[in-house]
Amino acid sequence: MKINSSKVLIIDFGSQYTQLIARKIRESGIYCEIYPFLSSIEKIKDFNPAAIILSGGPSSVYDKNAPSISDELFKIDVPFLGICYGMQITAYLFSGNVKPAKNREYGYSKLEITKKSELFDGCGDNNTVWMSHGDIIVSPPKDFIVTSKTENGNIASFENKEKKIYGLQFHPEVAHTLCGHKILNNFLFNIAEIKKNWELSDFIEDKIKEIKTEISSDDNAAICALSGGVDSTVAAVIVSKAIGKKLICIFVDNGLLRENEAKDVVKFYKENLSLNVKFVKAEKIFLSALKGVSDPEKKRKIIGKLFINIFEKEAEKIKNAKFLVQGTLYPDVIESVPVYGASSIIKSHHNVGGLPKKFNFKLIEPLRELFKDEVRRIGKKLDIPDAIIERQPFPGPGLAIRIIGEVTAVNLKMLRKADTIVSEEIKKNNLYNKLWQSFPVIIPVKTVGVMGDKRSYESLIAIRAVTSSDGMTADFAKLDYDVLRQISSRIISEVKGVNRVVYDISSKPPSTIEWE
Ligand code: XMP
């Protein structure tokens, strides 16, 4: 029996790659969602998936409180693909022999395909795959056959064709696994026989229609907090296409933005995107609230709270505002229901602009099902220029979390100048779009230098530049020394009060992208 569905469900066991699996599936033109492993069978059945993927995760099946699922799950009549921990938990639940390995197998391995499998169709015999696992499967469950091994002779994949259950010990979703895309597509299109169903242009039209119906009355207005970033901009443009000037956008200048940013962005919104924008100048209020505060979390909370107060006051002035537009993305939705034990809150960050539910507004979140790269593609389809679409992410608390310690007008001025230099040099060298973020940070220490034969004792600036696909993990960018030299010498000669520049060479984890 073929179930009348074309959606894939990913059950999350806390792997850092879970979202990547989802993005890969959507890139293949198939809609999918992620549910935490604790979700009830009823909820999973209600989703009506055409296939289920069990993600990887950091645990061992033998851990106390190891994440697990009910065997009821496997009674749902759809194909299953367990990846890494997802394969181990499958083996464990079907009484295979899983053992903790002495050392975690991490990194590249050569895959040797030992039995023909539909999963590996078109893959060739020798493939490089990416592994990251602690447990190993010593023998597969009864009625499962092993289809490939790693170069260490460990089981790399197994399957039970009749039950339609497949397992991969390696990660097909990461680019390092050369045949990964093909393997996932073999599972989706050949084994699960799913047809393509996810097209972004249909999405835009459907959303506009949906919003038009929802905000149908002429008396109702919607409000939206714009930040200059891609998410709020794309959300606002979609809603304005649906309801025109009945959407009133509010841009709060908190004084923590980059050089000329507030004015430029608002001008752009009005002139190029024809948005109805109210500009609120609040620099002084923010700076005085931050006076004497150096704790990073306190700074974030002050900024978040003030923003809400100001927004609330402005919103009250708008007659008939019944709807609130937010640029919430799918990762925000998933992260707000973290997988137990797997994700923990590291910083109280994302969506500082996120508004409290006590607001008496009905939420409109047109991007709720989308990943960032999908939002960017939609932005392009909506003719929003690259200057906004390709912008590097900028944190809600702005430059305040790039000034370690107290935020003062003097530090802000220094940081803005340095930021302009970093940005100019990075763009000049065609690196801006290749980097997730690139920015300077002021560190509150002084070091000794020598300038024009005189001893100097001045501030220190660190440069942070990272590559990342989603901000969840990141690596420091291997910038060319000449680019770094140019940034450093320009900052030291053009930014008064700085005599030393250092480059941050840490990855996330264990560091984070921002310094606070
Ligand atoms: P971290 O520093 O946690 O940052 O590695 C990951 C990504 O999130 C951005 N970020 C924030 N965004 N409000 C935001 O809206 C915040 O408080 C915040 N803190 C960090 C950061 O710039 C990076 O892209």
Question: Could you characterize what this model shows?
Answer:
This protein has 516 residues and is α/β, with parallel strands linked by helices. The protein has three domains: 8-191, Rossmann fold (3-Layer(aba) Sandwich), CATH 3.40.50.880; 206-389, 3-Layer(aba) Sandwich (Rossmann fold), CATH 3.40.50; 408-503, GMP Synthetase, Chain A, domain 3 (2-Layer Sandwich). It has helices at residues 18-27, 41-47, 85-93, 180-191, 200-214, 230-243, 261-271, 283-289, 296-316, 330-335, 372-381, 386-389, 409-428, 481-494; strands at residues 8-12, 32-36, 51-54, 80-83, 97-113, 126-139, 145-150, 155-160, 165-168, 221-226, 247-253, 277-281, 321-325, 362-364, 437-451, 454-467, 475-476, 498-503. The protein has a nine-stranded mixed sheet with strand order 2-1-3-4-9-8-7-5-6, with helices on both faces. A five-stranded parallel sheet has the order 12-11-10-13-14, sandwiched between helices. Strands 15, 16, 17 and 18 form a four-stranded mixed sheet that branches. The termini are far apart. The structure holds xanthosine-5'-monophosphate. Xanthosine-5'-monophosphate binds at residues 300, 346-347, 349-352, 393, 395-397, 437, 471, 508, 512-514. The site of xanthosine-5'-monophosphate has 17 residues, from loops.
